[in-house]
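Researcher: Good morning. I'm working through a list of sequences from a screen, and I'd like to move beyond sequence-only analysis. For each chain I'm collecting a predicted structure so we can compare shapes side by side. This is the next one on the list. No need for commentary yet; just the structure.
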Amino acid sequence: MSIETLKSALPDYAKDLKLNLSSLAAETVLTPQQVAGTFVASALASRQPQVIEAVLAEFAPKLEPAALNAAKAAAAIMGMNNIYYRFVHLAGGDYKTMPARLRMNVIANPGVEKVDFELWSLAVSAVNGCGMCIESHEHHLRKAGMTAEQVQAAIRVAAVVHAVAAVLDGEAVTSGPQAVAA
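Model: Good morning. Structure tokens for this chain:
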């Protein structure tokens, strides 16, 4: 499955998502590695099998093995961190002063430029809705010299990938065997 196949699986009401997939796949404000890694990390965060399959088919070949591994690692570690730090942020109290006691070694040594890993972590954090992580990663990216336009481009990728996954999941429920039986 490719991005074109994924686009053809989207219903007519999601035409804007089809257009956005095309334009974001050709995004020029980010490096090709940043674009590909953002798509991969966001797709994995979406947890939607068709999206993951299509995005990996399209973008995995555009990444060196270390970069592909780092994009996957960003999705994995942020899957854990987004839950933990969203809790810390929302619960408040003593939790903010307590050590997390969770292993996060990949953040220190992701195998790619730190800015790329931070960008992918930000995209996953946006998909997972962790405000504390979004603030932290955005701050580190801007401090490292990324522009607002570059950060926005990554979040646009995450937003569209997430929306495509939601549409496909919704269509599976509303047009699948369960919908016919109802």
